[in-house]
Amino acid sequence: MTIKIGNAFKTIIATGAALMMAVSVAACGPSAGTPSDSASSDSSSSSSSANAKARTLDEIKKSGKIKIAVFSDKAPFGYVDQDGKYQGYDVVFAERLAKDLGVDVEYTSVDPAARVDVLTSNKVDLVLANFTVTDERAEKVDFAKPYMKVALGVVSPEDAQITDVSQLDGKTLIIAKGTTAETWFEKNAPNVTLQKYDQYADAYNALLDGRGDAFSTDNTEVLAWAKANKGFKVGITHLGDDDTIAPAVQKGNKELLDFVNEEIAKLGEENFFHKDYEQTLEPVYGDEVDPDEIVVEGGEL
Amino acid sequence: MHGAEILLQPGVFPRLLQGLWVTVWIAGVSVGVSIPVGLLVGWLMTLKNPVVRAIMRVYLDFIRIMPQLALLFLAYYGFARWFDWNLDATGACVLVFILWGGAELGDLVRGALQSIPKAQYESSYVLGLSPWQTFSRVILPQAVRRLLPASVNLATRIVKTTSLAVLLGVVEVIKVGQQIIDANRFQFPTGTLWIYGAIFFMYFIVCWPLSIVARRLEKRWSHD
């Protein structure tokens, strides 16, 4: 039973065609919360040039939608409320940016470790996911002016409180992958065993279950969490350098970067971020935290 | 408040079901397209042509050796950066699961085809059927019964593996669950177990009928 090459070749082509079909079917997939519902239509417009080139401001305006990556499980900065709507400090800023640009927002849910990749592969135009500015990250993406500042904090059970990094020697510290806490502890505390999780939700559960002795991430985040979870306290409220949090765009997307910078400067005049703080963060932090310790107005530290 | 009450909150169940629909959709399309792809791949694997066999060999081994997660990242981030082929997250998942399902199913098809006695092929040729006719009219119908139970198992594996899609940012049932847990973590600190428990039952309800079908078919055809 010999078979002609031509025949086999046809089959290969048919297989390929079937795959292509599947991909195009996927493009019109379910509407329920896929991160890039209409991405197929507008991302194809940028596919003429080499690499995953970022969209220009004009292209974003024309498509009527700006694609923004936010956290979807990190209240009060970026989370999804019970109606399935995105909410939080970052989201309020995202909505305002879109409004001033005259477009709608299309949110993509990201995990901490994916924030650089979604930009370099042009899955989104802008990342507004509590993105701490570091030199390492700045080599891969362009940061706009900051709109928040933050240091590391360490939360631990009240009955075995960690109040100094030296107490962690030989103990297990829970961290989320791709966060500044991961880099800081790897560099500065080699004796600490790090237990890494992809998702914040899982990291918190690990702490609740006692799989680690403490959990470290941005102080804003642990403060909010410890306030809501009895039996846990932030023993170290300020660790490492004061870092800034800023929006990020793909490297070289100057147009969008300039727009975001102008917006931040303009919004500073109307004290926008303080209002944002009152609306989203104050209910969580209460009056224990001075807003000026967290909010950066107009991009000026 | 008791943790179980989180499930009764307005919006929680509809949202989980919406997430489940994304999961089922990805799995359904992947399995659906995997079937024709797998049949073709399986047929190609039985061909004597050395070039086709080599290609199929590389394809199968590549898919088998690479973890699905690595394939997902390649399809989602890699394609965009190297070829500027910007698949959305759902598209990347479906593509990878079709390639995976096609390869695994292809190997099952190959096994089933090769288990058909040679006399069946020879008789068909003697009757003047073309290779394609022999395959589609004589061999395939017999092979399908032998490979159905195993392919249903493959389908349940694909359903479960869709949970990796969450790492590309697809908001499927697991991600929806995590969002709900997080949004309610102040109100229901112990809600985690209940949400993951509900998700467990959702996967179970999707996969269970499949494994029942597989068991029934196996029983019914075991005496043929």
TrEMBL record, chain A:
Pfam families: SBP_bac_3
Comp. bias regions, Low complexity: 36-50
Residues making up the signal peptide according to the UniProt record: 1-26
Cited CDD domains: PBP2_Cysteine (cd13694)
InterPro entries the UniProt entry points to: Bact_solute-bind_prot3 (IPR051455), Solute-binding_3/MltF_N (IPR001638)
GO MF entries: arogenate dehydratase activity; prephenate dehydratase activity
Keywords from the named record: Lyase, Signal, Transport
One GO CC term, this protein: outer membrane-bounded periplasmic space
Region annotation (Disordered) ranges: 33-52
UniProt domain Solute-binding protein family 3/N-terminal: residue ranges: 65-284
GO biological processes: amino acid transport
Entry's EC annotation: 4.2.1.51, 4.2.1.91
Lineage: superkingdom: Bacteria
Family statement drawn from the similarity comment of this UniProt entry: Belongs to the bacterial solute-binding protein 3 family.
Protein known as: Hisj2
Species whose genome carries this gene: Bifidobacterium saguini DSM 23967
TrEMBL record, chain B:
PROSITE patterns for the chain: ABC_TM1
Coiled coil regions, renumbered to chain: none
Gene3D superfamilies documented for this protein: MetI-like
Membrane topology: Multi-pass membrane protein
A Pfam family matched in the record: BPD_transp_1
Transmembrane segments: 20-46, 58-79, 193-214
CDD domains attached to this UniProt entry: TM_PBP2
Domain ABC transmembrane type-1: 20-214
Keywords noted in UniProt: Cell membrane, Membrane, Transmembrane, Transmembrane helix, Transport
Subcellular localization(s) per the UniProt record: Cell membrane
NCBIfam families on file: HEQRo_perm_3TM
Family membership noted in the UniProt record: Belongs to the binding-protein-dependent transport system permease family.
PANTHER family (alphabetical): ABC TRANSPORTER MEMBRANE-SPANNING PERMEASE-GLUTAMINE TRANSPORT, MEMBRANE COMPONENT OF AMINO ACID ABC TRANSPORTER
Designated name of the protein: Amino acid ABC transporter permease
Organism: Bifidobacterium saguini
